[in-house]
Amino acid sequence: MLLDHLRARQARGETHVFLDEPAKEVLRTLFLRQKQGPPRPPPAAASAEPNAPSAAAEPVVREAEPPTPAPATVAATGDTADARIASLRAQAESWPAAKSLGTLRDKMVFSTGSSTAELMLVGEAPGHHEERRGEPFVGPAGQKLDAILGAMGLDREAIYLTNIVKFRPAMPRQTSNNRKPTPEEMAACLPFVREEVRVVRPKCLVALGATAAEGLLDLRGPVGKMRGRWHEFEGIPARVTYHPAYLLHGSAGLRDKRMIWEDMLEVMSRLGLAISEKQRGYFLPKS
Length: 287
Known about the structure:
Elements: H1 2-11, H2 21-36, H3 81-93, H4 96-99, E1 104-108, E2 111-113, E3 119-123, H5 128-133, H6 140-152, E4 160-163, E5 167-169, H7 183-200, E6 204-208, H8 210-217, H9 223-226, E7 231-233, E8 236-241, H10 254-271, H11 277-280
Parallel strand pairs: 3-4, 3-6, 6-8
Antiparallel strand pairs: 1-5, 2-4, 7-8
Helix pairs in contact: 3-7
């Protein structure tokens, strides 16, 4: 080899090598070949039969892709409405679509009330008080709701009360503070609300607050622009009103109470409930 020859001459004390032009040309050729890399193999000769596989070709083996799992579905089962609601409650405990988000707390809060109620109220998500008790609307906002129902001549046992999201939305270092659920969290739990409506088959629904209206009816904007007319969910007439927590704000006054009450008067009319003159006059300015 050339390098071995040059090293041998160097070992004998020679420091310079005379190169004529042919030798220089050989070295230039070698240098260029080394720079360009090893020569590419010539293309395989075309087969006499273009579509015939080469005898020397190895078969290409590909791993079979795992089948895409079918999406989990919610289905109420049982012979009675109570049994079907109980089956939904059991499924919600470990609902993969909600659990996989990693943004909800562990304790599930499902619903309360009658599974054959004519009126169904839908909130957004459980909060601190609801998580502790395992029941929707049991904190200060729940007490306001109880007062509204009482003015209508109803109580919790006569209605069906639920939330779109069945778990309390989580926050860092969370104590009693709450946050509204995200659209993803509501979408993950909405199949349960659909099934609840199909089981209960109420005469009408009420979405409590803008977030519930967004999750249930896909509405956006302030409640003031959503209320005052009927919407529809799963073929059931639906009304939007302010969340009972709205009445806890220091700025809430007689006008705000009257707006909520007007919504409830429309609900009472839809349900065929008797409305007294006293009830019609609630929260109106005194003449």
